[in-house]
């Protein structure tokens, strides 16, 4: 595949927007996956290459949220292990699965999330002042996190929505802290997924790293916005991005 200046500018642009969307909600890969595939990559290679930027974007976001005191680190380990197990299983499945499955899994997840936010929005956006729960007091949360990890390991696109639903719905974190922990979880299963994809030689490094630059810039500015934004603004942004995700899944 020939990598041109046009390709580089395209990836930088969509990466920047995707970095913002992923950090504040989810679904940024609905932009980046089609952009990679337009360049001639098969779906499974685009899916693998996209993870390079996802990893670096999440690292940027986590460091930003931690700097502003919005990352609850005391419950990270219990949250991570079911996510990692799910991510490993999902990544192995994705590396062997036919590419058409990705579209239908993405569409189903986006429709389910949109329906949940319409029917019971408090599940993914707890009321202000709601006290977060600990993993040890909420054993059912490990199953929702494992499912989110599997989905993230398999397709990545839209996993932010699934993780926010698990963290805000099961553990009752507010949207800012749920987004911070979401990025930690995404780092975990993306690391596992990258190992699998690299081992199977499915990552194209040059476009992956150029895309990552856009992701990093977007994540940096998204954290600054999230810290200052009202909770209701973040909730509506999450809802709008869910609807966009549904449309993108149909188009994709």
TrEMBL record:
GO terms for cellular component: plasma membrane. The keyword Cell membrane applies. The keyword Transport applies. It comes from the Bacteria. It is a multi-pass membrane protein. The chain crosses the membrane at residues 79-97, 104-123, 143-168, 180-198, 204-222, 234-251. Keywords: Cell membrane, Membrane, Transmembrane, Transmembrane helix, Transport. It is found in: Cell membrane. Belongs to the 4-toluene sulfonate uptake permease (TSUP) (TC 2.A.102) family. This is Probable membrane transporter protein.
């Amino acid at each position: 595949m020939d990598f041109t200046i046009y390709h580089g500018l395209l990836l930088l642009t969509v990466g920047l927007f995707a970095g913002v969307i992923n950090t504040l909600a989810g679904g940024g890969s609905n932009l980046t996956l089609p952009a990679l595939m337009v360049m001639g990559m098969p779906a499974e290679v685009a899916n693998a290459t996209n993870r390079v930027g996802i990893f670096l974007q999440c690292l940027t976001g986590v460091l930003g949220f931690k700097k502003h005191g919005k990352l609850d680190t005391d419950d990270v380990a219990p949250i991570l292990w079911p996510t990692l197990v799910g991510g490993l299983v999902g990544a192995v499945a994705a590396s062997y699965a036919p590419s058409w499955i990705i579209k239908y899994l993405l569409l189903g997840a986006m429709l389910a999330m949109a329906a949940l936010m319409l029917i019971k929005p408090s599940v993914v956006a707890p009321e202000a002042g709601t006290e977060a729960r600990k993993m040890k007091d909420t054993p059912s949360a490990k199953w929702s996190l494992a499912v989110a990890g599997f989905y993230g390991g398999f397709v990545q696109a839209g996993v932010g929505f699934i993780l926010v639903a698990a963290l805000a719905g099961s553990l009752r974190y507010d949207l800012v802290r749920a987004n911070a922990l979401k990025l930690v979880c995404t780092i975990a299963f993306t690391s596992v997924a990258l190992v699998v994809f690299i081992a199977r030689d499915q990552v194209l490094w040059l476009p992956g790293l150029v895309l990552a630059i856009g992701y990093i810039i977007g994540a940096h500015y998204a954290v600054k916005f999230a810290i200052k934004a009202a909770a209701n603004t973040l909730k509506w942004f999450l809802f709008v991005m869910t609807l966009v995700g549904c449309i993108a899944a149909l188009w994709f």
